[in-house]
Give the backbone structure.
Amino acid sequence: MTSDTPAGRRFRVFNRRRSAPSRARRRLGAAARMIAALALAGGIYTAFAPGASAEDTRQLSSAAQEGKALFDNSCTTCHGRNAEGVEGRGPSLVGVGSASVEFQVGTGRMPMTRQESQAEQKPPQFDETQTKQLGQYIQELGGGPQIPSGELTENLDQNPDALARGGQLFRLNCTSCHQYYGAGGALSSGKYAPSLHDATEQEIYAAMLTGPQNMPVFGDNEITPQEKREIVTYVTQQIQEDKAPGGLFNLGGYGPVTEGLAIFLVGITVLVFTALWIAGKS
């Protein structure tokens, strides 16, 4: 124990001065250890989770880059900067694939002029090249269904039964909404199934892949690619070429029974009124 003398007071001051740097060093050491621990944790995360870094540096093809420029100028208001959707305006496009984009944009349904119960078909705002560029951007952004390359219809010389099988598949899967002759029809809540009379091969195939509006999605595990081509063949080579199964009037496209029944009813009515007119005159 030091005495309260001048020498003792000097000794206490000296000890305080000597202990001050020691506390500072301890604090600096603790800060250095914390920084080192944070750097180590960051390095471990980067090593075991490279996906985030890879996504930030993802390279787009030249077509996708052109599509991104078109998307940024025309689509972000409803679908967001990264195609993740905007609540109350438009859904996310991540994972919808190029098939959905090519159908919606190629038929003029997108961009929409206003929010409605169903997107109306209208003249497209983008040409075919721009539509494919938009589709390529969305495809590279999140993947999804694609329209296959090559022919989308069956060669009837090599596969003569394709037309009959396509008709059977069409009647089984499509007529409840599009009717037997592809004329379309009304659905609930102001929606409707569009006519197929002017649809292209790409539009029909893409619609089956993506299920636009109220249409269900027919994946390849439900309707195989060959069956899809057979349906496209039936629609484009039977329905669109107006090879009517009903004959002259093609009432509803159901076949000759409806026309025979209509002719019978109309004929009987005419005969009844003719008989009454003759009886009245005699």
Notes: The beta strands are 185-186, 192-193.
